[in-house]
Amino acid sequence: MPQDSTYIFIGANGDTFYLPLEGPGQGITVSPFKTVRAPMGEQKQVADWMGNWLFAIFMSVLLIRLFFPHIFRRLRLFFYSHKAKAVFDDRQPDYHAILLQYMPYYRSLPPGQQERFVRRTVVFMTTKQFEYVEIEPEERMPLLISATAVQLTFGLEHYLMDHFEKIYVMHHDYHFGFNSVPFQGHVTSEGIYLSWANFLKGYDNYMDGDNVGLHEMAHALAYVNFNVDDGRDDGFHNRFIRFSETGRVVFENMQSDVSGGFLGRYAASRYEEFWAVCVENFFERPTSFKIQLPELYAAMCLVLNQDTLTRNILLSPVENV
Length: 321
Ligand SMILES: [Zn+2]
Description:
By secondary structure, the chain is mainly alpha-helical. Helix content is 54%, strand content 6%. Helix 1 packs across helix 2, helix 2 crosses helix 4 and helix 5 (140-152) packs across helix 7 (212-226). One of its GO terms (molecular function) is metallopeptidase activity.
């Protein structure tokens, strides 16, 4: 797995505003509190009343957005649920065909589970904002990226990773921050970033334990469960503690293994990477994983509530669609 980065980066100039001290705008003075004398009358009173209400609504939305982002996202999800249903009703056959073509996981699902998978994928897709950076958007892009998130969380009740509103899609490897090694994808508090060429490669070869889509979604899932309180799945959160009782032991043992063993050296670099690489191998090489690291494989099944080596995949039913 090439280098990526997880979690918080504050760019040197990413969100800085400044006013030029010299240049064309020099010397211009703007008064923010300019007063305008308006004619009196009933028409003006109505206009003032409407203006006050609009201002109050605008400020309320702004304050909720700023100080209670999780409430804002819940409201947003409520409004988007109708759109998701309409999209599902209209596009299900086409989405089914695309998922069959690209996703081995989807092909392995029983028919009833396939419909549930598409429903979840459509809801995930309609609640996210996809930003395309130097690449032409295609319909399959948001669908397949959303499907990757749904694959990882298919055994969980809460699968929307609410904190992340934006998913950025780049064309190829890209440079980020001061890192000299190009990235295939990364996750920050601002969003999930994926390079499309590498995303597709992950599914072209679904047997090598290298899948940048699953890797970054694993980081994103950990982020919403342990770094922010916005999108947590309580079952996953609690079971992850039990997963780590096994995972930490394997991770510590890897520190003295030059080869890195079955999971490789990148998994030994940080526990966050260990988790993400476990996810990649859990889905792409389950049989080898189970033979090489049986206790860790069992812990993965429990924490994700699924096992792709079983017929029904889910270990216990999930009530939420
Ligand atoms: Zn990573």
